[in-house]
């Protein structure tokens, strides 16, 4: 009973419902912004529970919109909630919530893609990376149009321990289109295995918590929505720079139905592609006829480690982009010329000792 009384002390005072606020301020979801409102407070409460215990927690909510999820976060006991909202139409309704929860809700009218979250909370909440995560959470019902670029940006922040991860291993609870949620959590040999699977799982423990049916949103999207929880790992499963890992993974999956050596070959200039691809596959001990979806995180670790060594031997390799080489070849053809000049000097395979 005591616990129930403590929880009740966090409840917001009576307020207009989210639906009433939408009517009051004449709010409509903007299709071009991929906005879909989640109005059922039972579902927003369930989503917030996936973040864990928010009692006295610091929270950043991404894109609060009309404030349904915001109410659930406050009712869960967050002591400091920072909301970042790009759409000015929602600011008056959020100010109403702020007045109902004095000192607990801060509003930033801005774009989460550029907001400096490392300046949003006191440094005193920081925890060493090797210890338990800080009492800081990122929660959001993300617009579909920004969800993938945003999570890639945050994954890079995790790798560099910058942005919201300057405070430690900050946890995230976010919504994605169900297909994207399945990609983020897909295991080896799964049809949904993708670049996102590898990039997320080498840096985080990732769980697809539950699925929200599309009919629960207003307006109803054409797809269902997955709720995904991320906890950064103490040690990444691949110990190489984020951009290098991303380049290897991106090249492998660009030919997802082909054998993996096809995509790996695109890491190298055409003049030396076959020899260097063979060297990379051999030293990484990866079977060239495996499909990209069959490659495990240890496979990608081996590929990234060997590729990093090859780049240290031939630094121009890291900046090589096969698309640029192809563009130059097409340009030369249009000019009636032939060129054999690759973007990078073709390195020779390393000779065995």
Give an overview in words.
This protein is an alpha/beta fold and 353 residues long. Helices cover 38% and strands 14% of the residues. The strands form two sheets. It has a seven-stranded mixed sheet, with helices on both faces. Helix 3 packs across helix 4. The model is unreliable at 1-9 (pLDDT under 50).
- Radius of gyration, whole Å: 24 Å
The profile of the biggest β sheet is:
7 strands, mixed
Mean pLDDT: 90
End-to-end C-alpha gap: 74 Å
Going across the biggest sheet, name each strand in turn: 4-3-2-5-6-9-7
- What's the assembly state of these chains? single chain
Number of strands: 9
Sequence stretches where pLDDT stays below 50 over 5 or more residues: 1-9
Number of H- or I-type helical stretches: 13
- Shape estimate: elongated
Residues in helices, as a percent range: 25-40%
Supply the helix-strand structural class.
Answer: alpha/beta
Strand content: 5-15%
Order of helices and strands: HHEHEHEHEEHEHHEEEHHHHH
What is the topological layout?
Layout: H1 2-8, H2 18-24, E1 37-38, H3 41-49, E2 58-62, H4 68-75, E3 80-85, H5 91-100, E4 105-109, E5 136-140, H6 144-160, E6 171-177, H7 178-185, H8 195-201, E7 204-212, E8 217-218, E9 225-232, H9 242-253, H10 260-265, H11 273-284, H12 297-313, H13 322-334
Parallel strand pairs: 2-3, 2-5, 3-4, 5-6
Antiparallel strand pairs: 1-8, 6-9, 7-9
Helix pairs in contact: 3-4, 7-8, 9-12, 11-12
Short description:
This protein is an alpha/beta fold and 353 residues long. It is built from 13 helices and 9 strands.
